[in-house]
């Protein structure tokens, strides 16, 4: 029988009424002839409550016990979803991570999935089970202890199951109805995309569109799992949501798929750095060790062995970056005249696989921003994206202008 | 190293502060040189919340899913207790039922313990673990699904661990400070017992003294596990609580150990029953099938092949009993003139292993009640107990008078 994976996040299973609504969607796919693996999160608020308990026990807690406590929220939802499906006469049962088993590394609280043997679930599908309700976010370590997968773990669980069981599709039910050309709160012209390529979604996810966790998109891309993002609060329909898929499946597309932004960036400039081989490592090594997430890097042309080095990072990490640079200077590892932090910048990016075959996309972006009087502070590009750092006050204007310039309100 | 089992009920782990207090008691025993197995219940209120969720999904729920959901409360407490002990620098880890493993039958929601292999825990004790915190009330079925043990399951878990690991003692921490000669709310002369024999405790537990679950006392008696009942809200001391132990360990004891009562009883009389071989089976078979817990039974002397049959049951089961008898009469299985239900009776019992070697105990009980003008409706006796059914309005008077007559306020 063809198989679907359906994942419901915390807000989609927050109450028994919502669990019932989600179960109806599952029942609809079973009636359509699918076997279904349902991945559930904890009822919203539950995981935070459990994390709070753990943190209250002390500051340096054992991640193994953290996992044992925090994973229990998903177990509750899995059982309740199975019961609700049974009440609708859909043959269902719940599975905890260790029962599947979902085998992970022993990196507690942020474990990686190693393997999902399919024998146990397939045996039960063979005996007439139509729905396996799996507690998301959790697995079992080689030592037999419960692990959790860390941030975005339930999305990742869903994609991993879809890959292991060869599912036709992996539907991620959330509280937004799909992926948009940009944030609808910034321009009402934002349009929901019917399809988006994995590579585009990956750039959008890591650029701040909080629909899907980067990790789950990477996994979907690697195993070519077709992902659909859709809202559990809308009426079911066959073309609901956004399909994230290999680019071959997208016949026509705009050159630019979307405009992403990241509001709280900082631009850091090290002035009068001694330019010598290994200087980049001497700067960015200590920053990485200090936990500073450096994003864009620009080095000015050297003038007499002296240069300026500019990088961007989240504004919340400026203090850490300053301390790391001062320490490196004090230790004699680098020399610079001063470190200037500009905390009032934002990043705006255009993303699209069409850029690969279309010249002039970056130029059109720069021209659009110039026409609006927006000064560009830093530029970085990849094959399918162009990002610029600008003054934060122009961010919304820039997003709107780029959305208009590339006519993203129109479908291809 | 000598080993103790310590069990903390729901009120003893209701908050993180209380978990900390319980952990301190555990730490004290570790400092005394014991390895400890701690059995925990869910934080009070949690299990009821989860049961409520399950019941909301529908009236005929799958007991396997019920178990998967309801068992999660104990997992949370086990992890939090392990973390709290670690914070106090006591080497501890949590164990869920399937990790131990605690092997049970597949009678979900009321499973029986089959075996507790000791290898896993003992290996960790050998590696330096001093405390194993075990989630109570749960185990794993032969099919690998989570089971729960039903009412009193956590006490039973504790006793079973004490038996399997040859523990020196099993301490049951609860919200009362021990077993009393009678309910202190009925007479201020009620005295806490230092020791009580298993057989006595069993009679007291099943007669309504709600300190320990009958099932756990039976298990303790079978495996000679010394049980101590004590309060987690009192300062620790070596002679706290009540020790439930083999009668050989009780040097001196009163003839009567305690006076128990059960308030909500009903006395049912079948009048003019045809007295023939098999009539008792014809009456009590249907009652058992209807789920009526028949306690005392008295049959009058037969007069011309016609007799009266009297039995007692909880007052809440009277309607069921009436229906079962009417149905049996309609089916022609029994014949009787009428069924009279007296819903205003209570049961009062005296219990003590000393009765075996002392004559006249029952006579003294009857005389005491007569002197108070209390009419006895039904009497039953066993080797170590005498029970009477009386009008409910005399219940407190009867308990007080018997407590005085047998001088239970004085230690032996």
From TrEMBL, chains A, B:
Pathway: Amino-acid biosynthesis; L-lysine biosynthesis via DAP pathway; (S)-tetrahydrodipicolinate from L-aspartate: step 1/4; Amino-acid biosynthesis; L-methionine biosynthesis via de novo pathway; L-homoserine from L-aspartate: step 1/3; Amino-acid biosynthesis; L-threonine biosynthesis; L-threonine from L-aspartate: step 1/5. Keywords: Amino-acid biosynthesis, ATP-binding, Kinase, Lysine biosynthesis, Nucleotide-binding, Transferase. One of its GO terms (biological process) is homoserine biosynthetic process. PROSITE patterns: ACT, ASPARTOKINASE. It comes from the Bacteria. Pfam families: AA_kinase (PF00696), ACT (PF01842), ACT_9 (PF22468). Residues 268-353 form the ACT domain. PANTHER family: ASPARTATE KINASE, ASPARTOKINASE. NCBIfam families: asp_kin_monofn, asp_kinases, PRK06635.1-2, PRK06635.1-4. Substrate binds at residues 47, 74. The lineage of its organism: Bacteria, Pseudomonadati, Pseudomonadota, Alphaproteobacteria, Rhodobacterales. It catalyses: L-aspartate + ATP = 4-phospho-L-aspartate + ADP. SUPFAM superfamilies: ACT-like, Carbamate kinase-like. ATP binds at residues 7-10, 174-175, 180, 185, 210-211. Belongs to the aspartokinase family. This is Aspartokinase. GO terms for molecular function: aspartate kinase activity; ATP binding. One of its GO terms (cellular component) is cytosol.
């Amino acid at each position: 029988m063809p198989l679907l994976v359906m994942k419901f996040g915390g807000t989609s299973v927050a109450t028994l009424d919502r669990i019932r609504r989600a179960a109806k969607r599952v029942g609809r796919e079973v009636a359509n002839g699918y076997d279904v693996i349902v991945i559930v999160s904890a009822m919203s608020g539950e995981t935070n409550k459990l994390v709070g308990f753990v943190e209250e026990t002390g500051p340096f807690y054992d991640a193994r016990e953290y996992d044992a406590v925090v994973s229990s929220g998903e177990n509750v939802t899995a059982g309740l979803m199975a019961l609700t499906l049974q009440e609708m006469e859909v043959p269902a049962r719940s599975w905890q991570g260790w029962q599947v088993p979902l085998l992970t590394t022993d990196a507690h609280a942020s474990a990686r999935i190693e393997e999902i043997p399919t024998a146990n679930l397939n045996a039960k599908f063979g005996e007439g089970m139509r729905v396996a309700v799996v507690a998301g976010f959790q697995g079992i370590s080689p030592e037999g202890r419960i692990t959790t997968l860390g941030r975005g773990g339930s999305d990742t669980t869903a994609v991993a199951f879809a890959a292991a069981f060869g599912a036709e599709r992996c539907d991620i039910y959330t509280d937004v109805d799909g992926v948009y050309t940009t944030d609808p709160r910034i321009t009402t012209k934002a349009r929901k995309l019917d399809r988006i390529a994995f590579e585009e979604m990956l750039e959008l996810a890591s650029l701040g569109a909080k629909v899907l966790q980067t990790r789950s998109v990477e996994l979907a891309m690697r195993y070519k799992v077709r992902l659909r993002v859709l809202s559990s609060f809308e009426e079911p329909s066959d073309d609901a949501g956004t399909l994230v898929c290999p680019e071959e499946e997208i016949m026509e597309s705009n050159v630019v798929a979307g405009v992403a932004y990241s509001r709280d960036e900082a631009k850091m400039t090290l002035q009068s750095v001694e330019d010598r081989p290994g200087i980049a490592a001497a700067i960015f090594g200590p920053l990485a060790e200090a936990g500073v997430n450096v994003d864009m890097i620009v080095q000015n042309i050297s003038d007499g062995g002296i240069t300026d080095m500019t990088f961007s990072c989240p504004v919340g990490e400026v203090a850490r970056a300053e301390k790391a640079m001062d320490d490196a200077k004090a230790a004699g590892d680098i020399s610079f005249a001063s470190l200037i932090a500009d905390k009032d910048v934002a990043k705006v990016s255009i993303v699209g696989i069409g850029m690969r075959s279309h010249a002039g996309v970056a130029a059109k972006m720069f021209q659009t921003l110039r026409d609006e009087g927006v000064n560009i502070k830093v530029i970085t590009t990849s094959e399918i994206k162009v990002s610029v750092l600008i003054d934060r006050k122009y961010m919304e204007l820039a997003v709107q202008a780029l959305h208009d310039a590339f006519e993203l309100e129109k479908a291809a």
